[in-house]
Specification:
single chain, 176 residues, alpha+beta, seven-stranded mixed sheet, 9 strands
């Protein structure tokens, strides 16, 4: 059974550090630029790309977020979402959304996004905004399914030292 609850600090620290934040994909989005236009083009990759998000430098900052939502399934940490509110433009920012691999595709991500939307409305935010990477094909597909729309990108955000192309892709979900 899925349970959502607020962050319990410091009890949640170790389970969060143990959360598997990796993903593997055989498709990425490549940025195609033409004049003042950009497009994201789904492109197969071989071998598959695997990426791990290291939370070790992030977890200790979570108590400073306006809202951190923990998802548990059967008492086990299954995922988390962390939000900050930017009052100057009334935007809630979804800084972190991670679901453990065993819990993906089972409604945990959707439940966390729904809880993040509810929290953002209480701030009161006009939209929920996030950034993901063009190589995170699954995340981009997911965000579109739960009501986010692409609102921009940055091809210079990441310094990958000659690694595969990776751009920051920004999404927003209006909160009427």
């Amino acid at each position: 059974m899925l349970t959502l609850r607020p962050l319990r600090w410091p009890e949640d620290r170790e389970p969060l550090l143990a959360l598997d934040t990796s993903f593997t994909t055989d498709r990425v989005y490549r940025v195609v630029a033409s004049g003042l236009s950009f497009a994201l083009e789904a492109t197969p990759v071989a071998p598959s790309l695997r990426k791990v998000y290291d939370l070790s430098g992030e977890v200790d900052g979570l108590p400073g977020f306006e809202r951190v939502i923990i998802a548990e399934v059967g008492g086990e940490l299954a995922g988390m979402a962390a939000l900050k509110y930017e009052a100057w433009n009334r935007r809630a920012v979804l800084w972190h959304l991670y679901i453990g691999p065993a819990h993906r595709g089972r409604g945990v991500g959707r439940a966390l996004v729904d809880a993040a939307v509810a929290a953002a409305r209480q701030f009161p935010a006009r939209c929920l905004w996030l950034e993901t990477q063009s190589v995170n094909y699954g995340a981009i597909q997911f965000y579109q399914r739960v009501g986010f729309r692409c609102c921009g990108l940055d091809t210079t955000l990441y310094d990958l030292g000659g690694a595969a192309e990776e751009a920051a892709v920004f999404f927003a979900r209006p909160l009427p």
